[in-house]
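Consider what follows.

. . .
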Amino acid sequence: MPREVAPEVAGRARALGTRAGATLVGWLTNRPEPVTRVDWTHRVDWTHRDGDYTHDQQPGERYSLRLKPRIAIEPTGLEIVDALLSDPEPYHWDGYGRYTESWPMLLPADREVVAMHLLPHLLNEWDRPGDFHRTVAALVDGDGPAGEGLALLLARLLAERGPWHARDAGTTLLLRAVARGSLPAVECGRQLGLVLRRTEVKLGRVLESLEDCARKGAHREIWQLVEGMLPVLLPGTDERAHAGHTQVLGFAVRAAGWAGASGPIPAVAEVAARTGSSGFVRTARRLHELLTR
């Protein structure tokens, strides 16, 4: 159902005098918004029990990850509508996965709900529907709020490289989202940080893709994305910094310069305030000074 309809449509729905008509009137006059979120879990032992991640910097098992999308909204009482607006079923190729290309047409004004239904297929790229990128592109062009679901789809696809992926498929999707004004940039950065922490994708390839997008005009959005990524990706107090952390801070310095960014990032300020003269700390100081001068 579109988000903008002519006033007389509600009148015609009311005249039906049916339960379904009354439900439609409620949606037309006071449309409820689904509340969505993405939970990450990982297998904790041989019994296949899932353990939930409790914070963004929590380490976990890379090869037993599962995404559990959540959709919450007051039931309508209409079985098929409530099925669409409920938590997706676990991944089954013989279930929804075979027809993912149809989901954007089913809910064209609720792209975040559609994104939730696509997420169970996201990490299994070797067994993913072949038109997955086109389906995500349809969400980018769709209507409705964009949140964690669409952000995670864009982040993961941006990070993917391999013989079965077009080299620029992920950057094309991200740039399309920028052009459409549908990129939740800070949340996409947070999800990209989670993807880098918890999956097998390579940081160097991700930074190449981000730089490519920035050089094609998306420098402001790429900086916003980096702002969301750094608090997740930088090492916590109980973690050791490595070369990748210095590399991502170096990219952040360049991205901040391209965007003319200002304003401190607490996670960066904390590293910059540490004693020592490692390349990691020195680069954090450069970024902090650039953002606070």
